[in-house]
Specification:
- It is an enzyme of class 5 (isomerase).
- By secondary structure, the protein is mainly alpha-helical.
- The chain is built from 21 helices and four strands.
- It folds into two domains: about 350 residues, Fumarase/aspartase (Central domain) (Fumarase C, Chain A, domain 2, Up-down Bundle); about 60 residues.
- The strands form two sheets. The chain has a two-stranded antiparallel sheet.
- Helix 5 packs antiparallel against helix 6 and helix 14 packs antiparallel against helix 15.
- The longest helix has about 35 residues.
- It is elongated, with a radius of gyration of 31 Å.
Length: about 500
């Protein structure tokens, strides 16, 4: 059985987020070939390598042409993350121009820039999922804007809210995270193309121009200082995804609690045939809410290694680079898994409004103590009113008499309000504040953010697939008798594997 075929037992209940496959070996290797192709084209354009070399290298940059089994075997033998791929790629390019592959670059120039390409695709998928989730929240907030329920602080009844207000809180946070994801793009989507330590020494005076052209080919930005020790943009992505996970975990905790029989207020969708327990046939477990809790914890925990990866010593530390590579890929995949589950939950969430009203009445009016206190405070002062209502409320909480009856008998309260007025003041349905308006406003805000994300996705300029375009071109045949070095078809003193390894370190 393929261990990757089912990563979690609930995967069958949710659609594929479309992110995990982006971090497959094949896709990451293709991204590295894309960067090598962009580098070769840029260098050919500025005259660092022969023009036909750039075109030939770009034309060959297709993962299907490489022997990946050979690459895997050589990786194990050479113990290097990129050199075996470069050597195999140079072999595919051919003897004439293979020696120009990876000219002037260091390993991290290729691997980190390639990972940024992968992250760009993953980032788009995350934003697409956020748009779906926000649209689902918008519908839910609007539909439940006026549905009263108990507001709870420290797990105890506080003051009444509406379910729509609860959703509005979720929207506010998730929309803010969306904004953060958009704002970090310029710091994240940049090429790292400065050579061994970021000084462009191996590219000579054309270094900055090579960097600019590579970035242009790939649709990325450039770094003011292309140091291998600078990774804050990628770290920032992990931290923002951690915030997304924090909000999703909070939502999962709310739904998990509300599904308890003692609450019975809201329920995630449970398809027919879903098994809750191998021994208790009645169980209807909050599986997806539990996923949100566990996956959120896992993603939030990645903030620490992401920050640790910034601890490069001097100009680069491969251990820190490797740490961030694994951390950001794990964080991005988890974010997709979380958002797909959240989307399914929101799309099928069932509310029991009758149970919400019943739970509001559990305290027999105590949840309306603030309303009464504020009204009484206008007559006798806020602090004195708090003392009076507090004493009555605590007596009701620990005794057998109802809050209403005790209030009616209280001399201070009864001096200002009769029984009907007290009933009105402690009625939770009459003390919702701006819950309805807030829910409606945030429903509109969620729609606006979702609309913006979807418009951005529709109008985004596609990155030119120069690799595929050049593949259609036919290279002119060279005279077999011509000197390949003199004609520029082979790099001067064609590099050996050992020399390539030195360039790639």
């Amino acid at each position: 059985m393929n261990g990757e075929s089912i990563r979690h037992f609930t995967d069958g209940r949710v659609p594929d987020a479309g992110i995990a496959h982006l971090f497959s070996v094949e896709n990451r290797f293709q991204a590295r070939l894309d960067v090598e192709a962009a580098l070769a084209l840029a260098e050919a354009e500025v005259g660092l390598i022969p023009e036909p070399a750039g075109e030939t290298i770009a034309r060959a940059a297709q993962i299907e042409k490489l022997d990946l089994d050979r690459v895997a075997a050589e990786t194990a033998s050479a113990s290097h993350p990129l050199m075996p791929l470069i050597e195999e790629f140079a072999r595919v390019v051919g003897r004439e121009y293979g020696g120009w592959v990876h000219w002037g670059a260091t390993t991290q120039n290729i691997t980190q820039t390639a990972d940024v390409l992968v992250l760009r695709d993953a980032h788009r998928s995350v934003k697409d999922l956020l748009a779906k989730v926000l649209r689902g929240m918008s519908k839910l907030a609007e539909a439940s804007a006026a549905v009263p329920m108990a507001g709870r602080t420290h797990s105890q009844h506080a003051v009444p809210v509406t379910f729509g207000f609860k959703v509005a809180v979720w929207i506010d946070e998730l929309a803010a995270h969306t904004d953060r994801l958009e704002r970090l793009e310029d710091r994240l989507f940049r090429v790292l193309m400065g050579g061994a330590v970021g000084t462009f020494a191996s590219f000579g005076p054309a270094g900055r121009e090579v960097e600019r052209r590579v970035a242009n080919h790939l649709g990325l930005g450039t770094m003011p200082v292309p140091s291998r020790a600078i990774n804050d943009g990628i770290v920032e992505l992990v931290l923002v995804l951690g915030q997304v996970a924090g909000t999703a975990g909070k939502i999962g905790k709310d739904i998990y609690s509300m599904m308890q029989p003692e609450f019975g207020e809201a329920f995630e969708p449970i398809p027919e045939g879903t098994v809750g327990s191998s021994t208790m046939p009645h169980k209807r477990n909050p599986q997806l809410a539990l996923d949100l809790l566990s996956m959120s914890a896992q993603l939030r925990a990645l903030a620490a290694p992401a920050l640790e990866s910034m601890q490069h010593d001097h100009e680069a530390n491969g251990g820190m680079t490797d740490l961030l590579e694994s951390t950001v890929s794990r964080a991005t995949v988890l974010a997709g898994d979380i958002l797909t589950r959240l989307d399914v939950i929101l799309g099928g969430l069932e509310l029991d409004e009758q149970r919400m009203r019943a739970n509001l009445a559990l305290s027999e009016g105590l949840i309306g103590s603030e309303s009464l206190m504020m009204e009484l405070g206008e007559r006798i002062g806020r602090q004195k009113a708090h003392e009076v209502v507090y004493e009555v409320a605590q007596e009701s909480a620990v005794g057998d008499e109802q809050f209403l009856d005790l209030l009616v008998r209280n001399a201070t309260v009864s001096a200002y309000f009769d029984r009907d007025e007290i009933c009105r003041l402690i009625d939770p349905r009459a003390y919702l504040g701006e819950s309805v308006t807030i829910a409606q406003d945030m429903a509109q805000h969620a729609r606006a953010v979702a609309d913006r994300l979807e418009f951005s996705a529709r109008t985004a300029k596609p990155v030119p697939l120069f690799l595929r375009e050049t593949a259609a071109a036919t290279s002119a045949s060279e005279d077999d008798d011509a000197d390949p070095v003199a004609s520029g078809r082979i790099a001067p003193a064609a590099r050996t594997a050992e020399e390539l390894l030195l360039v790639g370190l």
